[in-house]
C-alpha cells in the first residue's frame, strides 16, 4: 500500500480507494480478468457499472514525461508494482478521458472497483453528528476495520475563499481524500491511521 502515489490528476478519491483495496489481495486480484495476458500487451480490468461487471481492455503503456510516470505511480519505479497505474488508465477509458477523473467521492470509486453497496457519512448531517458525539460511528468503524472492509475519508473544502490555505492546523489537506488503514482504541484514545495519496505528510 505504501507503493501507490498520486500523480498530477485530481483523482485522490480513486487513488485513496485503490490504496485501501491494496491491503486485501483478493480484491486486487478480482480487478483483473484471469489469466492476465501480460505478454500480449493488453490487460482486461473489471469494473462495476450500472449493476453489472464490464471489462475494459487497455494496453500497458502509461503517460511518461522526462522519464517519470505522469499520473498514479509507484513510489519506487524499480521495486514497487504498478498495477494501479493500469487500473487508473482503464478507469479513464471507462469515463472517456483522464481529465474526467478529476474530482469525485471515494464511496463511488469503491463501487466501480469492487461493487457492493458502499455508503458515506457527511459531517454536515445531523444523524452523523450524533453518531460521532455518542461514539457509535467510531465503534462501527473499528468493527468494519476488524472485519476487513476497506474505508476512506475526505476533508472539507478550504475555508479560504481564494483556496490559498491548503491544510488545516492538523496538517490535513483541504478537499482531499485519505485512505483509512487502521482504526483502534488504545486506553482512552481513539486512533484512526490515515494514508495520504501523495505518500507524504501523514
Keywords:
alpha+beta; two-stranded antiparallel sheet; 202 residues; 3-stranded antiparallel sheet
Portion in strands: 15-25%
Mean pLDDT: 90
Q: What is the terminal separation in angstroms?
A: 14 Å
Structural class: alpha+beta
What sequence of helices (H) and strands (E) makes up the elements?
Answer: EHHEEEEEHHHHEEE
Discrete helix count: 6
Outline: globular
By DSSP, the count of extended strands is 9
Helix content: 25-40%
Largest sheet: 3 strands, antiparallel
**What value does the Rg take, in angstroms?**
18 Å
Residue runs with pLDDT of under 50 for 5 or more positions? none
Structural features, described:
- This protein is of the alpha+beta class and 202 residues long.
- It has 6 helices and 9 strands, in the order βααβββββααααβββ.
- It has helices spanning 12-21, 25-30, 83-95, 106-114, 126-133, 136-146, and strands at 4-5, 42-49, 52-59, 64-65, 68-69, 73-74, 151-154, 177-186, 189-196.
- A 3-stranded antiparallel sheet has the order 7-8-9. The chain has a two-stranded antiparallel ribbon with strand order 1-6.
- A hairpin with a 2-residue loop joins strand 8 and strand 9 (189-196).
- The radius of gyration is 18 Å and the shape is globular.
- The relative contact order is 0.18.
- The model has no long low-confidence stretch (mean pLDDT 90).
